[in-house]
Amino acid sequence: MADPADTAEPTGADTADALRHDRQLCFAVYAASRALTGLYRELLAEVGLTYPQYLVLLVLWERGTLSVKELGAALRLDSGTLSPLLRRMEEAGLVRRRREAADDRVVLVSATPEGTALRARVRGVPGRVLAATGMTAAEAAELRTALDRLTGSAGAATAALRARRTAGGPEPAGADR
């Protein structure tokens, strides 16, 4: 993988075009994410779920009881974000949290019968989302693959840059201090 700090910068007239917000990969992904999340928000409001609650339930329906740490890893959320979400879901009767008997530092999360019952009510959401996007199932699968690759590559590049910075290596050209 190429070192992101070593990537050539555009020069001259290319610089102005390269720095347009609508030419940025990050902006395209951000705008698509906001649009898709908004669509889910509207569809899930019909059953009284928020988008983050839906994601938690999807993982629990798929994998069963998990520790908060495992759930956070699956959703790429830290415990500071996940804990208040789980507390609200527990208050709503969707999940149950309990301490693991062998190690009371570990909190286990499982869907309640009410949370499990929602699965039938949201079964049509993925199809409705796909229809709303105008994409075929094959196009959506291809996009997911590309986004998974993007996520992995960007995460690895971020880790490499962070390691370089914390080791006292050179900062990328033009980095603000």
TrEMBL record:
GO cellular component, one term: cytoplasm
UniProt keyword terms in alphabetical order: Cytoplasm, DNA-binding, Transcription, Transcription regulation
Segments traversing the membrane: none
Cellular localisation: Cytoplasm
Residue stretches making up the HTH marR-type domain: 22-152
Transcription among keywords: yes
InterPro entries, A to Z: HTH_MarR-typ, MarR/SlyA-like, WH-like_DNA-bd_sf, WH_DNA-bd_sf
GO MF term set: DNA binding; DNA-binding transcription factor activity
Keyword Transmembrane set for record: no
GO biological process, one term: response to stress
A Pfam family it matches: MarR
Name the record gives this protein: MarR family transcriptional regulator
